[in-house]
Amino acid sequence: MAGTGKAHLRDSPDVLLRVEDLVMEFPVGRTGLVVHAVSGISFDVLRGETLGVVGESGCGKSTTGKALMMLPRPTSGSVMFEGTELTALPPDQMRAARTRMQMIFQDPISSLNPRRKVRDIVREPLAIWKRGGKEEQLAKVDALLEEVGIDPQRAAESQAHQFSGGQCQRISIARSLVLDPTLIICDEPVSALDVSVQAQVLNLLEDLKAKFGLTLVFIAHDLAVVKNISDRIQVMYLGKICEVASSDDLYASPAHHYTKVLLDSIPVPDPEIAVHQVAIEGEPPSPVLPPPGCRFNPRCPAADDRCRSEEPQLREIATSHFVACHHPLVGGDAPVAVRA
Amino acid sequence: MTDIDVVTDEHAPEVPVLADAPVKKVKVKRRGRITKWLAIGWLAFITISAIGANSLPYIPHSCEPGDSMCSTAVKGSLLLGQLPPKWAFFSEAPKPVNGAPERMGLMGTDKNGFDIFSRSMLGARNSLIIAGLAITFGLAIGTFLGMIAGYFRGKVDTVIENISNVMLAFPALLLAIFLVTFFNDPNTTGAANSRPLWPIILALVVLSIPPLTRLVRANTIAYAQRDFVVAARSLGAKGSRILFREILPNIVPTLLSFALTGLAILIVAEGGLAFLGLSVEAPVPTWGAMIAAGSEPLRNGAWWISLMPAFVMFLTVLSINLLGDVLAQRFNSREAIG
Amino acid sequence: MSPQTQAASRQVDGPLLQVTDLRTAFRTDRGLVKAVDGVSFSLTRGRSLGVVGESGSGKTVLSRSIMGLLPKRNTERSGSVLFEGQEIIDLSLSERRKIWGREMSMIFQDPMTSLNPVMRVGKQLGEGLKIHLGMSNDDARATALKLLQDVRIPEPEKRLDQYAFELSGGMRQRVMIALAMSCGPTLLFADEPTTALDVTVQAQILEVINEQRRDRNMSVILVTHDLGVVAGHTDEIAVMYGGKLVEKAPTRVLFANMKMPYTEALLNSIPKIEDPSHTRLNVIPGRPPDLVNPPKGCRFAPRCSFAQSRCIEEEPPLMTAEHPEHMYACWYPVGSPVHRERSAQLAEQKVGAR
User: Fold this and answer.
1) CB-based contact (8 Å) between A169 and chain C?
2) Where are the domains of chain A?
3) Which of these, A242, A322, B166, C44, is most buried using a 10 Å CB contact count?
4) What is the complex's ipTM, to 2 decimals?
5) CATH fold of A15-100+181-335
6) Cβ contact B2–C74 (<8 Å)
7) pTM, whole model, 2 decimals?
8) pLDDT tens string C246-293
């Protein structure tokens, strides 16, 4: 897996975000080693679409999300957003461009300043950009707080720790919407929440997306959650893209062995089915020394010599269904017999 | 499973909590409540006494020649004398000079016949002003440098980090001695009241900057990685706004509790420098100078002249440290809830 | 400790753990937070119990309270905890220390913070063996290696000399399990052991815990917010809400025949992978109750779609369902006439709304 390639990029006037050959590398202390967090990925998002990015820790999904906002700037590659090349923007213009795209983080409490009143936190973006007078700003903040289900009165009096995790995530969402962005990058927004609250936040995101005409990039490790909210899903492993497909196609006919593993790993809340499924042994290797060839080959049941030497490219195996695998589960040239 | 929808509501309104229902108040046990109040009480007492120190009866009284309670070292040669605490307190004997009150304080008198308690309070004023100003300036400069180093990193960080390393490696005492001697005008040394306060304050400020810079830098680095700072950046906030609005309010609590510890350390440090004769000159009292002045009579058994101011200093430093602990605990628990 | 309980010899055939009316409350400035409010259950040796609930349901406090891990200051604890027939609720700290590790031990959500960062894995494992079991250095190291092999950590010899930060999240949790196993406990508490791990590793870790349970005839209490996690890995499930036990049953019985609307709502709020994308998720409105001032009747009533006036007025006791081991606390359980009528109404409303 772990392929490069741009076969899946779309040529549409509706493309809001187009990322090409994105590379993010970080030095490991002063050892001279480098973490290959993201190794040349390309993808695009259409206006009004929700792109789900799924993978395990270390697959580079969160780094990708931050790279879109130039936090920090990518090592190399291109990020085109609303027709502007972000990687080349000078800092001041970048600050302005960031207001068009916003981010929601995993830890709802850590993403709110613990020493400030919640209403001020939500108003902060308007204060930074001096949009309207104070009355006008507060009116907008209160309307948004109502929209996400937070009492503005309480928000004016309380700090973040006086709210529950789910409420903090709602507050984060309100803050991200206050500058009227077009793109929201959600970085594991529900993985720190209880299931009951998770459902509330996911429904809220869907509603707000419809109401404000948002485009979402939804990053998470839970495929069931990603599938629920996304139109298109991109599966990542060790800094590479394995598979890109519409949510329903990906679930109905996973082509990549890693996608299959992810699907099989979802805990099923049914004791009749869920008897000790261990879908895969081991853990992803370190992104400091990624394996050659397909990066999934050391854990892949179908890996052969070709997978260990030659990196697979993304190719279309069905309409709008792309996979980077030499021996895909569906649509492959030579079907390989694999384990149960 | 049945396929009924449990709830199909949209925004999940908050369930009203019956806030008006009576809640039985319980007593929450806390560690060190009494010590906290003792510490606050002592500090309040010291502060008020220091402010009003001028009206305290520290004026010398006479010592009758031949009085057995007067120190042998002084007896006969001077009319002024050192008296031990008990005698000073109960004696009706001391003759007022210049209209000083008849009964002297709990702590005895020094070799000049000054009441040690009153002098200690006057010393408190000088010691607290010196240490307080020093920690304030140290804090301001240290916070500024630390935040810049911790937030911007890179070259600024390297420079600040190296300078503070050099300063930390330099023996603190030597540095202080050097600074004080350098800035004190040799021509005026020795003349009463002629030595300014600022060289000693400067020395203490210089001593306090590197550790404060390090503390602030470490805290800034920790907070700069928090999501809310990343969020502020993604909202287009500039560096200065992030530093002062997002990061500073979060490190202030840590700084406050550390500043109290620093204040205590500086009080002791001033004492040390004064003991070496490097602080303000007698007869302007600081605790250190008073302790130093008592070192000689100590050999003659006049223990109170050194120990009484030392005791006052000890209680003050202890109280400040206790208060610092209380502050640190309070802020920690608040953070833990959040 | 009362003379009777002291006199009682250790039962071997009774349940391993018998908790009766356990209450744990914390004194705070807001008032008494009743985190565990009268919980009773028993656990047979070798079985695994899943304790499920939202945050704030008291599930974590329950496990710590049973183990006696909570600080005494500002904590009020009452009730009875019989471990192998012996009352352990009023043991002194030194007596509890003898139990920790040897009789019961615990693994936590974040293995990084529960492992000593400056001690090599082998040494950390050996420490307990030397102190509790009086082993020599060589024996301790050999046993540590055996423990690492038991939890099926890759390259166990190499791991002995590594530090926790050099290991991956899954390996750390395996080390944590090995550490918890080192002195051969009969009861293991696992507090959200897989929440911090990747999905592909979660199943592996749960399987290791299960293997250890079978091999050692040990009991496991698995505390989690995820019904999906407990479904495949426990014999029994206890659902907690607002500090109370609201439903308890053998796992298969529970999933086949849920009684509490809360349990059902919890299950329904999990997104199902087989549903088409953008399927509207079922939510439980509102938040868990305030434990300082819980609702008078059923604690779930304010959030329950099926609540009647009786639910708000009167607290339901634990009742027994058709299956003798199935307990629930609800006046109008799933399947009852009132519940059926109301669900029909809700379904109609839903259709009408569309």
Assistant:
1) no
2) 15-100+181-335, 115-179
3) A242
4) 0.84
5) Rossmann fold (3.40.50)
6) no
7) 0.82
8) 999 999 999 999 999 999 999 999 998 888 989 899 888 888 888 888
